[in-house]
Write a structure and sequence with these properties.
Length: 377
């Protein structure tokens, strides 16, 4: 069903909280534990007056298989382009297949189309077969599940899966199709940004519809799509507006440092009297550590105000050179807790790079400042 995470996973680690190992076409299929809970829940409430327990189970299994086949559709077309799928994870609101690398726009178009097409084919085959046998019943009658209309309901479920996934709400399949088409004419990060914007808009509409109809599943999917679009949009925007700039263009160059022999009291004073949160710790001319605000607070509570900053600082901090491309530094910055020290080739500390400051840089670029020279070094 919805998103196939576009984030290639370099560690090939499975998604946490998943269990089970089924393999389809060599791809491990895992079941997130919340999915198992949903199955139990559906079986529990699904046994109605007109529907037997066995047919309820059949219906649930058939829909689950439809979602799984949808993911297999993505997987097989991705394989055609030489992209291995690390795993398929089944969540209550759908499947997610994780490709080992991000596909090129033309590849993504066909990979994204393949999933919904599988659901369309399942529906078409079922409807074709039913029309020769007993005819297709009124769609409204399907709201009363009976053993007799099981196949009709499976066909209808697949039609819904087909249409729903084609909504142009990135990161759902339709949004990926939109992005790949946009990317034929413009940079991929720009295409992602636009598709993610559409994704957020559709997610809000979906959420409202879910609220109006009292459909908690739809609200849940809307939230999932919204957060996915928000994150991917922000990442793409970050890359788009920082590309071509070095780290030095966005680094803070007017900052205060601590000295190796300073006390935590001195550090606390500096935290209060400046707007800085993180302080480089110097020994002579070279930087030997980084004292973050949380590190300072932790050390104050355990060691007291008279202990030295050298005992509280981080010795393993992220070092960046002024020439490093800013767009390459962003993921490292995020992984390092949003702060890095900028150190030149002569081992001199020349700046601090924080996530907060990079967002200001991006804001300035967005506001039309082509060359935001935030320092005159
Ligand atoms: Zn899909």
């Amino acid at each position: 069903m919805p998103p196939n995470s576009s984030q290639p996973n370099p560690n090939n680690k499975p998604i946490a909280g998943s269990l089970g190992t089924l393999k389809i076409f060599g791809v491990p299929v895992r079941f997130h534990f919340t999915f198992i809970l949903l199955l139990v829940f559906l079986l529990f409430i699904g046994v109605g007056e007109k529907q037997s327990g066995a047919f309820t189970a059949l219906y649930v299994v058939a829909l689950f298989a439809s979602v799984l086949l949808h993911e297999v559709g993505h997987t097989l077309v991705a394989r055609h382009y030489g992209i291995r799928t690390i795993e398929i994870v089944m969540f209550p609101i759908g499947g997610v297949s994780r490709p080992e690398r991000e596909p090129k726009p033309r590849e993504e178009l066909w990979i994204a189309l393949a999933g919904p097409m599988v659901n369309f084919l399942i529906a078409a085959v079922l409807i074709g077969w039913l029309s020769t046998r007993q005819g297709f019943v009124n769609v409204m009658d399907l709201r009363n599940p009976t053993d007799a209309n099981l196949l009709q309901r499976i066909a209808f479920g697949n039609l819904l899966l087909w249409l729903f996934n084609l909504l142009p709400a990135y990161p759902m399949d339709g949004g990926r199709i939109l992005r790949s088409l946009l990317a034929l004419k413009r940079p991929i990060d720009d295409a992602t940004r636009i598709a993610a914007g559409a994704g957020q808009m559709f997610a809000i509409l979906m959420g409202l519809a879910g609220l109006l109809w009292g459909n908690f599943m739809l609200m849940f999917v809307a939230l999932f799509v919204y957060l996915g679009a928000l994150q991917e949009g922000a990442t793409a925007k970050g890359r788009l507006f920082t590309s071509g700039f070095p780290v030095s263009a966005a680094a803070i160059t007017d900052f205060r440092s601590l000295h190796h022999g300073d006390s935590l009291r001195d550090a606390g004073q500096l935290l209060l009297t400046t707007t800085q949160h993180d302080f480089p710790v110097m020994l002579g001319d070279s930087v030997i550590g980084l004292l973050t605000r949380s590190g300072l607070v932790r050390a104050l509570m355990t060691h007291g105000a008279d202990s030295y900053v050298a005992g509280a600082m981080d010795r393993e901090f992220l070092r960046l050179t002024p020439e490093t491309p800013l767009s390459d530094a962003l993921p490292k910055l995020a992984a390092a807790g949003a702060v890095a020290l900028v150190i030149d080739k002569d081992d001199r500390l020349v700046g601090i790079l924080t996530a907060e400051h990079v967002s200001e840089f991006i804001l300035l670029r967005q506001a039309g400042l082509a060359q935001p020279t935030l320092h005159a070094a």
